[in-house]
Amino acid sequence: MGFLLLCFLSLLKPSSQQFPRACTPADNLMRKECCPAWSGDGSPCGELSGRGSCQDVSVSDAPNGPQFPLSGVDDREGWPSVFYTRTCHCAENFMGFNCADCRFGRFGINCTARRTSIRKNILELSGAEKDKFLAYLNLAKSTISQDYQIAVGTYTQMSNGSNPMFRDISVYDLFVWMHYYVSRDTLLGASRVWKDIDFAHEAPAFLPWHRAFLLLWENEIRKTAGDENFTIPYWDWRDLESCEVCTDEYLGGRHSTIPNLLSPASFFSYWQVICTRSEDYNNGNFLCDGTPEGPILRNPGHHDRTKTPNLPTSADVEFSLSLTEYETAPFDKFANFSFRNTLEGFANPNTGISNTSQSSLHNALHIYMNGSMSQVSGSANDPIFLLHHVFVDSIFEQWLRRHRPLQDIYPAMNTPIGHNRDYYMVPFIPIYRNIEFFLSSQELGYDYDYLTEPGKMHLQGETLAKFPYSTCLCSSSSKKEPGGLSIGRSLFRGR
To answer: Partner of 454 at 20 to 30 A CA spacing, among 85, 244, 291, 420?
Structure first.
């Protein structure tokens, strides 16, 4: 397989998220403006071609919950206003920091064509499809992003923009860094931090944020590989007995003599992780700068079973889907009878009652991997993260189709900072509000094979059809057919 992958990679052409490279110079930071020109007509945001325009960012002033009582100390507050107060606002068919891309689900020169991309089970891919997926991951890991850079200092450390501190990074590691950045502690100086903060976990935005994150990651891999048909596959981990994808054929088997490492027969064993040393960053009052920090660690099944006694079952998933409330007060990891909190893994999957001493569902899979996947900041280093979160997203999609909620059930205020309905998602530029991804995947241009093929896996009923943005899709049954590291913050512990 290795030889075939190398041959395949040689045929691919690198493409030409966090901070757009065009917006990192001091002049842009001082003006707080990120409205780059679209190359098609040379105008900011492609305005001359009707693609978009440069507009003021309207940051929501809805009150946050009490979990973060500070103000004016974190660059992510009121995102993205600390860095930019003017960004591109794209017309309906377009998106991107300069409106150069097509909106999710649209294709073609003018982004007028529609298509629904299908995400598939990785274990059901053909040999060619599987090898292409692995090759694209390796390509993304080795290709420097032409469009984005990462911040290696806070805005204050950048002298309020006059001394830019940014660094190049690969397409894959760009998203690893973003997952670190959205969940990192607030740096207060002199090794002081505020830990009860996370803009993508432990609160309502967990599912919409990761939905956007995966779509953007998928989109960047498409551009890097020059393949607009690419989709990230999922791994159905219900009723797991072993890590089926932890083999050299897939995401890397276990090393024969060092159980925490991957087999050298897998090229993933040569990958280097980033952003795994949260305590070092906190103590030094600096941000992860993308420096390699060692190999991927993984030792599935050798986790702390007192805190993660059970792996997710079909019954656990079905119970979470039966919960009618997306979110309940206090809108964090202590929420009871919350679908989000139960699926995330902070509530008992048999009762829906919060139990932060144990991890289940989403959290349990992270802990089960017993390595890089088992801490929040560095979990995306392991490519199993992608397969895992795509399946979590498919469960979110099932809930939306079963309960067809109106968007106004998503909390508008009093959630942990970053999670209110109209808060802009950290750290995405272009900017998106949380509520923009609280809708059916079909409205975002993608679907899941087992949700589109009646009788496949566990879907029952008619083939699904489109519904308006304000609702989600039809109901389904989710009965399945037979068939810790000390570094960083553990996913099941919260804070």
So the answer is: 244
Say if CB 460 and CB 160 are below 8 A apart.
no
Q: Residue 267 falls within a domain, yes or no?
A: yes
Q: Which residues pair with 451 in a beta bridge?
A: none
CATH number of the domain that residue 199 is part of: 1.10.1280.10
The string of DSSP codes covering 289-350 is ------B----TT-S-TTTS-----HHHHHHHHH---S--TT-STT-SS-HHHHHHTSB-TT
pTM of the model: 0.90
CB within 8 Å of 318: residues ≥ 6 apart: 478, 479
Is 333 within the bounds of a domain? no
Number of domains, the chain: 1
Question: What six digits make up the tokens of 242?
Answer: 């072993």
Q: Which domain holds residue 214?
A: 118-300+370-451
Q: Given the structure tokens 């499809």, which residue do they identify? A: 129
Give SS3 for 113.
strand
SS3 of residue 374 by DSSP: helix
Per-residue model confidence (pLDDT) at position 249: 97
End-to-end CA distance of the chain: 42
Q: What is the pLDDT of residue 16?
A: 37
Q: Which residue has the tokens 């919060």?
A: 354
Query: Could you tell me the two tokens for 245?
Result: 């994808």
Has residue 17 been placed in a domain?
no
Residue 431 and residue 80 in contact, taking contact as beta carbons nearer than 8 Å = yes
Q: Which of 294, 36, 293, 290 is nearest to 165 (CA)?
A: 290
Which amino acid type is present at position 217? Answer: W
How many residues are given for the chain? 495
Short-list 427, 390, 393, CA closest to 288: 427
One-letter identity of residue 412: A
Q: Given a cut of 90, is residue 1 above it in pLDDT?
A: no
Neighbours of 459 (CB within 10 A): 22
For 353, the enclosing helix (H) or strand (E) is: none
Q: How far apart are CA 47 and CA 488, in angstroms?
A: 44
Residue range 449-462: mean pLDDT, rounded: 62
> In this model, does residue 6 exceed pLDDT 80?
no
What stretches of 251-308 show up as alpha helix (H) in DSSP?
Answer: 278-284
Residue 240 near residue 308, CB atoms below 8 Å: no
* pLDDT above 90 (res 77): yes
Count other Cβ atoms within 10 Å, centred on residue 95: 23
C-alpha closest to that of 371 among 267, 258, 203: 258
